[in-house]
Amino acid sequence: MHARLLLLLVLLMGGFATANLGDLTGDGSVGLPDLLIIVENIGQENYLPAADINQDGVVDILDLVMVARLWGTQYEESLPPQPPVLAYARASGDTTINLGNGPGEHAQEYQVHVSTTAGFTPSSHTHYEDIGLLADGTPYPHTIKGLEPETTYYVRVLAINAHGMAASVEQSATTLPAYTIQVDERPHEPPGFTQVTFSDWSSLPPSDWTHWGGTGAYGEQTIDSITSSPFPGGLLRQSFHGGSPSGHGGGRTRYTFNEPVREVYISTWYYIEENLLGNPVHVKMGFLQTTDDNGGHHMHGSFISRNAANLAHNPPGWFTTWGIRLRTGWSITAQLEATAVEVPRGEWFHIEYYLRYQDMGEENGVLRVWQNGVELFSFDNITIPGEGFASFRHEGVHGGGGFGPPEDTSYAVGQTYISIPG
């Protein structure tokens, strides 16, 4: 009775209860209540217009047959989508821009629209690509690829369903200067430094490295290759298995210096799979350990870094940046905890580190980091604990904060080169 009264009220307002064929009650499905409405109106002169399914001016057996054939049909809610969240657009390379996406309620698909003109209206001319969906229907964190270097782009995301569409607010980003991969290029290695180790990952572990850990249940480090690799030899592939608990992963591969060093340069390459950034995990890599590490005195580069800047910039649960994290005893920990940059996704990128211990009694230690030749971090006023750097390792561990990956994911490490003065 309630459904019938609702239908009558809508009719008095000049419309129908639903736009879905055969769903006369507006409950999102076709079933017995809809069939009864047809039966009640067959042959009636003052019939309910909504019961005339085939719109031939009469409610008859044909309308009954049509509803019977639609029996069991389930319709999506008849509402247009709400505007999706576009939290940010940030350049992650010379031809790429990363988007921080959040869902639009009732959306069934998402489109990326791009223009070089501010204040544009999304159209077929600005439709750049579609965004893939996670299992729960929310959009992946997305990377726009194939753009022009040093160009400002304006971006909007459309949420779409069968009943309409809605656009996000507009965000803008300027791509970085053109960059070409040169495998043996190490542009920021200081003059006079000498190589102490180099791995092309043709074996695990390399001859002067050690490898341990990795259960296979949570993930593993293996030697692998992918077709897009520009490197000879192999790749160090770090895999994570969906459903593994926080704080687990698959192995560690470490180089230990012959004796502690107080100045070091490191060059390495990474390839981040697209869905790694759709997994709420915190991934530690580029782990540089000091001689005094029993108090957690180390530095690590972290993908999907869950630091203050990230939580402020991104929708809750989306971790899409890369940053440096320091553990206790480093004098610039607070400054770096508030720093994060974008990670290129689905393409190789180059990371360089340079670190130098402080002079005795001074606070003039140095930390510099570059991504694809562009400086990300530069500090020359730090205090580093311990007597020197003892080792560097690629650590395949995810977790922190109780998060583990909901689905299988991975990343790869390319050539790794380390040098010291002498």
Short description:
By secondary structure, the chain is mainly beta. It contains five helices and 23 strands.
Structural domains: how many:
3
Please count the beta strands (DSSP E, at least 2 residues each): 23
Could you state the order of secondary-structure elements as H and E? HHHEEEEEEEEEEEEEEEEHEHEEEEEE
Number of helices: 5
| Structural class designation | mainly beta
Largest sheet: 8 strands, antiparallel
CATH fold node name of the largest domain = Jelly Rolls
- What do the pLDDT scores average to? 78
Radius of gyration, in angstroms, nearest whole number: 29 Å
Shape, principal axes of CA atoms: elongated
CATH architecture call of the largest domain: Sandwich
Beta-strand fraction estimate: 35-45%
Residues in helices, as a percent range: under 10%
Terminal Cα span: 89 Å
Low-confidence stretches: 1-18, 304-320
Q: What is the C-level CATH assignment of the largest domain? A: Mainly Beta
Structural description of this entry:
The strands form 4 sheets. Strands 9, 11, 12, 14, 19, 20, 21 and 23 form an 8-stranded antiparallel beta sheet that branches. This protein has 3 domains: 2-69, Type 1 dockerin domain, CATH 1.10.1330; 85-174, Immunoglobulins (Immunoglobulin-like), CATH 2.60.40; 193-421, Jelly Rolls. The longest helix is centred in the N-terminal third of the chain and has 11 residues, at 2-12. It is elongated. Mean pLDDT is 78; it is low at 1-18 and 304-320. 10% of the residues lie in helices and 38% in strands. Strand 15 (283-290) and strand 16 (298-303) form a beta hairpin. The chain has 422 residues and is mainly β.
